[in-house]
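Example: Alkyl hydroperoxide reductase AhpD.
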Amino acid sequence: MSIDALKDQLPAFAKDVRLNLSTIGSDETLTAQQKYGLFVACGIATRNPEVRAALAAEAKPHLTPEAFTAAEAAATIMGMNNVYYRFVHLASNKQYGTLPAKLRMNIIANPGVDKTDFELWSLAVSAINGCGMCIDAHEAVLLKAGMPVEQIQTAVRYAAIIQSAAIALEAATLAA
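Written out as structure tokens, the predicted fold is:
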């Protein structure tokens, strides 16, 4: 499956989502690795099998095996970190923030690809998962590395579009 096949599956009420998917498919704001890594990481983060498969198929020819694995790792590690750090941030007892997390996160230090790309994927997944603490942390790393805000915004826009495709597919099953 490809992005085009995914667009064809979207219901009529998701016309804007279809148009936005077309936009990210042809967008050249990011490097190919950044863009297609976002497809993989965000596709996984939606937890929707059709979206995940379509975006992985679209990305695979454009990524090295190492980059594909790193994008999968970004989605996976953020799945854990976003739950934990969202809790730490939102819990009324701020003592949790003083305790060691005791979570293995070695992949963040050595992702096997450019650290900036991995941070960008982690930021986008954190946006999908709604973890403000992780969003702030990854954005700070990206800004410190010199990534322009327009590229950071593009990554989050991709995450929003990809998540909306998953929601549209789920909503379409309600009508069936």
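The domain at 3-175 is CATH 1.20.1290.10 (AhpD-like).
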